[in-house]
UniProtKB/TrEMBL annotation:
Class of enzymatic activity (EC top level): transferase
Organism: Dioscorea alata (Purple yam)
Organism lineage string: Eukaryota, Viridiplantae, Streptophyta, Embryophyta, Tracheophyta
Domain of life from the UniProt record: Eukaryota
Name of the protein in its database record: [Hydroxymethylglutaryl-CoA reductase (NADPH)] kinase protein
Keywords tagged on the record: Kinase, Transferase
Entry EC no(s): 2.7.11.31
Amino acid sequence: MVLATFSWPYGGRQVFITGTFTSWTRHYQMTPVDGSPGTFQSFIDLLPGYHQYRFLVDGIWRCDERQPRVSDGFGVVNNWLYIAEADVAAPTIQYEPYIIRTMDMDEGTALYTASSPSQAQLSETDIQASRSWISRLLSSHTVYDTLPMSSKVVIIDAQMPVKKAFQIMYEEGLFVVPIWDELRATVTGMLTASDFISILKGLQENVLVLAEEELDNYTVSAWKEIKFQQNSNGPVGMHRRPVIHASDQECLKDVALKIVRNEISSLPVFKSSSQDSCMPLLTLACLPGVLKYIFTHYREPITALPLLQHPICRIPLGTWLPETGRGNGRQLAMLGSNSPLSSALQLLLEGRISTIPIVDDSGSLVDIYSRSDILALAKGDMYAHIQPHQMTMHQALQQVYQANSYINGRRRCRTCFRSSTLHEVMEQLSDPAVRRLVIVDAISKRVEGIISLRDVLEFLLH
């Protein structure tokens, strides 16, 4: 062991330090230095090797700009140091440049707000108090409160060729759209990315025997009829379950529970009363919209909820690898870059999951593949010219990058650590473009689990 000295010379009332040497789970309180106002120090025994660390200053995560820093490519910036054994030279560490966002008061870099590093165990009182507050909040607001001043809703005619419908979904960046039936003058269902996956699998397995010209004229309603018969094994015309929907006067809690319990991504919202013949569809309600609303209007009280101050590794939510000790019986699906696309299609449909982490040979995160990514194959009718069992996940991801014109040919994967607080996780998930976070090891980026917005709201509204 080597005794290392850490300093924070930029002031503050209370300063802690944590790092890879504690697996980011323990925080050492730093001591003010006599005769040097605003300076704090800690002395920690460390094993030889490479370490990352950061400071918690008055509840805000910081890093020291004057010390070496490393960006992990996922938006997290830490300081680093190398502890060498006798006569062993420290290696040269290459790190990517990043934009420094300094604060006026000092030279430290603010990363994000964090909770107090209390090691108190999660109590049932904390859980119930937080659940009760969120339940009351969501019960006191309706879907109408969340409607934007101006927006558009894309709908698909039931008689539109399904091939054209998927092209529209790709072009509009949508993975679920309402289906409008002109004869019934109402929304009769939803067309989703899962439907596209089902068609791809059907074509691959010769379940759908269609020539290319027939596929061009194959309507949305015809596809929904076949899918219904396949799922129900019933006769044509058999009674169907009404489309799951909400009225604009339903409270946000009830709408969120409908989405969670029915395992859907969104549902149509209709006017509670319509006196004219215009279409009553107002919008689509989704979990990101619910979370964004409460974080936009109630950020301060949410931050103070006791449950949200605990790290996610202490809270029973998400899907974890068994070796993390957080396994809950659910299997975390992962695929390698050389796995066939057909494996991903099967997992997304039969595993009832929405996202698959793609990892390298060591289990470190490379990217993710989601249901919505499959729509990239609608560009230029590529799905008609591929064999999913022959296309690798690496090739499928390249298609996603090209179809969506990601900068530098890649996109940013949203991640968190097991030490991330529930508040930090919810803060990221309040971005409508983010529906899940991959839990990774801070150093190796090995995947440890995944936590979705559905997991969070299902737990909070339990």
